[in-house]
Design brief:
- There is one protein chain.
- Helix content is about 35%, strand content about 35%.
- By secondary structure, it is of the alpha+beta class.
- The strands form two sheets. Strands 3, 4, 5 and 6 form a four-stranded mixed β-sheet that branches.
- The longest helix is centred in the last third of the chain and has 20 residues.
- It is elongated, with a radius of gyration of 15 Å.
């Protein structure tokens, strides 16, 4: 699979600065762990988050499991906000779309 990159600035005499899609996957996976009641859907990191970069626009798709009995809408909204904020604060890039897919529930 070809690596996808987002370029952070125009070329200058030093070259180009770009971020690989794996950077965004890692930030997103960390964000999942910081929202109460959200859990990674799989132990394999690549199965939790899919990143697409089209025309320098960042699209994030996330599969999560939620704590049984938690408010799904509020929790997914918190997760979207957390992912957006973490990616923006870390990279200065605003994700165009963040899709959250609930694939199951966890009993605690």
């Amino acid at each position: 699979m070809a690596q996808e990159y987002i370029y952070l600035n125009e070329s200058n005499e030093s070259g180009k600065l770009a971020l690989n899609n794996d950077v965004f996957k890692e930030i997103t996976n960390i964000s999942i762990g910081h929202v109460e009641g959200c859990y990674c859907s799989s132990k394999k990191e690549k199965d939790n988050v899919q990143i697409k970069i089209n025309d320098d626009k960042l699209l994030v798709n996330v599969n999560v499991k939620l704590k049984h009995g938690i408010n799904i809408n509020q929790t997914c909204e918190k997760l979207q906000n957390k992912i957006f904020l973490n990616i923006f604060q870390t990279t200065d890039i605003k994700p165009e779309v963040i899709n959250i897919k609930v694939v199951g529930f966890v009993n605690e």
